[in-house]
Write a structure and sequence with these properties.
Layout (H helix, E strand, L loop, with lengths): L2 H19 L6 E7 L5 E8 L9 E7 L14 H14 L4 E2 L6 E3 L3 E5 L4 E5 L5 E2 H5 L2 H5 L2 H21 L6 H27 L7 H11 L6 E3 L8 E4 L2 E4 L6 E3 L2 H18 L2 H12 L6 H18 L7 H19 L3 H4 L12
Parallel strand pairs: 5-11
Antiparallel strand pairs: 1-2, 2-3, 3-7, 4-5, 6-7, 8-10, 9-12, 10-11
Helix pairs in contact: 2-6, 5-9, 7-11, 8-9, 8-10, 10-11
GO molecular function: kinase activity
Protein name: Kinase-like domain-containing protein
InterPro entries: AGP_Transferase (IPR051678), Aminoglycoside_PTrfase (IPR002575), Kinase-like_dom_sf (IPR011009)
Length: 355
């Protein structure tokens, strides 16, 4: 495709979006492309008329079945149905406010879903910044310990609340939507993990413990997860945190959400020497409850596994990556063998402070 062809294709796509919105309260005078990843096209729309809540802009997220970046690869749009259903569900729930930090946590409001085009129209959190961007900005160096702790604690309180209450608040139809998404994600995820093990140098016994975890699959203890609970998907505005990007919402082990956040914060500390990230990480863990000894050991094991998986996507110096992978193997073994003494000497020793 030439540059001219690509430009024409983009303009045609934008015109189609504007046409779909035109007969609705979300008609826009113009839209502008935002970064949206491989599987989605995302725009900010400038409304012709403000909405009843005063909004003058919206976010338009379109789930794609294919991508020019990955020719021949098809994506299931079950993720789009799941995300809009979860946003609708979260919008019906009260905001979670940490009584100690007074920081509130919620998800953006879903205004409308066009099922034929897999298009979500949702609230634009204007003047917000992702936690990822905040941590890697000059502001992070000036952030007080108290602020970093408050952010970490609020995320710990929110994910605890979500894990403990979501399952009981969804009906059978909604549960089936999540289940279909879970099956699709599990199939793709297992293939990727097994393939990465074949090309990696994960030593024994860490390799065997990792394969055992991959083989476990679904269990009766699985709960509803956010599925991509990372610093990229937390938007900060004033004293409110907004949890976004629910496409990977699925059933699974709660440690997947916990360790996803741990791994992102730790890598900010490890690769970029951000002490603020470590403060957030340990504050996050301090407010997750209920925390049992069994769960603590699983968090250690799964954190090691997450370090191992994400190495596939980190363009960092080879020596730093090698150091992280050594830690990953150690954590996998420590968690699997319940080696509390060695864990106490790591950054995850805080898990056992009150156990």
């Amino acid at each position: 495709m030439t540059v001219i062809d690509a430009t024409k294709s983009t303009k045609d796509h934008e015109a189609a979006v504007l046409r779909e919105l035109s007969p609705t309260p979300y008609a826009c005078s113009s839209i502008e492309r935002l970064s949206g990843g491989v599987m989605n096209t995302t725009y900010k729309g400038h409304l012709l008329r403000p909405l009843s809540d005063g909004a003058t802009t919206i976010v338009i997220k379109i789930g794609e079945e294919g991508s020019a970046m990955l020719p021949g690869v098809k994506f299931s749009t079950a993720r789009c149905v799941t995300e809009q259903a979860m946003l609708q569900h979260m919008g019906d729930q009260p905001h979670v406010v940490d009584p100690e930090t007074h920081i509130s946590v919620r998800s953006p409001n879903l205004y409308h879903y066009f099922s034929k085009s897999n298009t979500q129209v949702m609230e634009d959190i204007r003047d917000s910044q992702s936690l990822d961007d905040l941590l890697h900005s000059p502001v992070a160096a000036k952030m007080t310990t108290a602020t970093a702790k408050a952010l970490g604690e609020s995320l710990g309180v929110w994910i605890s609340y979500f894990h403990s209450t979501c399952q009981s608040r969804i009906n059978a139809e909604f549960s089936e939507i999540i289940r279909r998404n879970s099956d699709d994600i599990a199939q793709r995820g297992e293939m990727t993990k097994r393939k990465s093990l074949d090309t990696a140098h994960l030593t024994e016994p860490a390799r065997s413990y990792t394969l055992k975890e991959i083989d476990v699959g679904c269990t009766p203890e699985d709960i509803v997860l956010h599925g991509d609970f990372t610093i990229r998907n937390v938007l900060i505005k004033d004293t409110c945190l907004h949890i976004v990007d629910w496409e990977l919402c699925r059933y699974g082990d709660r440690t997947q959400d916990i360790c996803s956040m741990i791994s992102q914060l730790y890598m900010s500390f490890h690769f970029h020497k951000l002490d603020t990230a470590m403060t957030m990480l340990q504050a996050f863990l301090s407010r997750y409850s209920p925390l049992t000894e069994e769960l603590a050991y699983r968090i250690v094991l799964m954190t090691g596994m997450y370090f191992f998986w994400v190495r596939l996507y980190i363009p960092e110096p080879e020596a730093d990556v090698a150091q992280l992978l050594r830690l990953a193997a150690d954590l996998i073994v420590m968690g699997a063998e319940r080696d509390r003494k060695r864990i106490a000497e790591t950054f995850l020793g805080c898990l056992f402070t009150n156990l």
